[in-house]
Amino acid sequence: MPSFPDATLKTPTGLTLSALTVSDAPALVNAFADAELRRWLPLPSPYTMDLAESWCTTTSRELRESGRGFVLGVRDRDALVASIDAKRVDWRARTLELSYWTATAHRGRGVMSTAVRRVADWVISELGFERVELRIATENVGSLRTAARAGFVPEGVARSAGFTDAGRVDLAVFSLIHSDRPTSS
Fold it and tell me: Mind listing the pLDDT tens digit for each residue in 11-69?
């Protein structure tokens, strides 16, 4: 299985997407203390500094090097404000799923819609993937808006396909494929 490159991506709005580092761990612990974010992400509770440090270093590196996924921190002026990770990677079919979170103070500003579109364009145009999928709890209004703003196409609902700390949830499925992207002349 191929590995993912250790990439640094830039957006036209000045965001930088790059691998997490141990110095990002406090920002993760702080972000994962937010009740709204925890409503949608089934994270260990409490989310400790040890867990955050392991995720930012060992786990994220192993995912990337093994080709099973990748994790990119989203930075605004060098501060970690969000993260995107790839999972459910199928190298043969050239498909993957992206998931994401945004820290409270940075929601509603277009940070994630810009970042997730940049990552999707990168995996399609530079890594040769054919399909990027988002699976979002149907009641997670903010993430649904992010998918729409990023240009992902809604496909339907997968019933009882996800889980949160509160139980099973239906997931809205969105995708972006090569032909959804604008062509250059």
Answer: 999 999 999 999 999 999 999 999 999 999 989 989 999 999 999 999 999 999 999 99
- Residue range 142-151: mean pLDDT, rounded: 97
Residue at token pair 């997407």? 17
Q: Where are the alpha helices (DSSP H) in 59-164?
A: 60-66, 111-125, 141-149
Whether residue 76 is predicted with pLDDT greater than 60 in this model: the reply is yes
Tokens 């032909």 belong to 179
Residues 6+ apart with CB under 8 A from 126: none
Measured distance CA(133)–CA(176) in Å, rounded = 7
91: three-class secondary structure by DSSP: coil
Q: Are 111 and 76 in contact (CB under 8 A)?
A: yes
**58 DSSP assignment:** I
